Fold these 2 entries.
Entry 1:
Amino acid sequence: GENVEQHPSTLSVQEGDSAVIKCTYSDSASNYFPWYKQELGKGPQLIIDIRSNVGEKKDQRIAVTLNKTAKHFSLHITETQPEDSAVYFCAASQGYKLSFGAGTTVTVRA
Amino acid sequence: NAGVTQTPKFQVLKTGQSMTLQCAQDMNHNSMYWYRQDPGMGLRLIYYSASEGTTDKGEVPNGYNVSRLNKREFSLRLESAAPSQTSVYFCASSGPTGDHQPQHFGDGTRLSIL
């Protein structure tokens, strides 16, 4: 089955700086890559996703890049704010099944 | 707009007891999913239902059963709870049709088994 590895497990950044989270996947057939944000006591919420026919996607301060050849994808958050503090999960799928990374706890220091 | 609703939010069981976790969505989604979340392991798929009337095993189905009651509801049953099933359980849905649709999650059921 698909194996998704996510790094780093924790990330502390100064407010206003950028944060980068990286994921690798094992199955070259995977073709959909969503990113989720989870706040304490809540379920994961989709923040951005990318399909395998696209190399980069942006939504305001958030961007995702995909390198299919190397089988890795990354989340970039620019101009971080305190409300960006949360746990972030990457995932990869083919068909209906999503395989998740272990998560990155992001802390934005004021 | 409620989205995905899970009940109960918290539950404590004794080993060997049975329990059904309920999930309902009001987004007219065809597909529904059950995950468990354990520290340091992300979310792992237990079972999913691609459409009403179908269910399939995910990554960690042992010890669980599911029922897709209708298009809105998808329940997860623990027949004989074990301490290893202590976890946070999330239900999700996606649609309206096909795969590669964003999954929408409920806020979880926190289950402790003593």
Note: The mean pLDDT of chain A is 94.
Entry 2:
Amino acid sequence: EVQLVESGGGLVQPGGSLRLSCAASGFTFSSYEMNWVRQAPGKGLEWVSYISRGGSTTYYADSVKGRFTISRDNAKNSLYLQMNSLRAEDTAVYYCAREGIRFGELIDAFDIWGQGTMVTVSS
Amino acid sequence: DIVMTQSPDSLAVSLGERATINCKSSQSLLYSSNNKNYLAWYQQKPGQPPKLLVYWASTRESGVPDRLSGSGSGTDFTLTISGLQAEDVAVYYCQQYYSTPYTFGQGTKLEIK
């Protein structure tokens, strides 16, 4: 079964750090581009970050640039998000999401999502 | 950044009727080199992650019922749900993946009238 499972969320004080992980299974992880997307309580979806298949190319939303770092370990089938200098407005469910491939073609849309991990930034 | 604007914000439709959700982008999502619109639609039910419904603006994802369809090109797109069923109650989002930052519409909440 194709699956993404996030972990590492929790309660952290403003200014603190957390590292989220996303474990992939059921597919060749190294063949797929990956993203993090977040959703604040009761709000819509916000794209956070992207990483290429080999990890050499990354992009970030302006709201997290300089504070968050996306990375991956293809040998461990894992995606990560290092979050530093956390703010109250970073409180959200964080999802990892895969960019799909159909008939050998990248479709870029997010075809597989994890269940999410909750990050709460509060004193 | 490309701004995605959905309308309406919420929608109540009777069972068996048609629901139409619109999405407008602040710039064209049509990539001239391959003639594809970089627009996707997602469905999110309470407590669940989003589910991909449509990509390339009109290509239905495998397993998605054919009563859901996407259309449009350039800057104006539509998700149509024909023969509304109770299971369609959800929030629907459009997303552009033409360029980063990838952006989502604000969501449209679909309910049964």
Note: The mean pLDDT of chain B is 97.
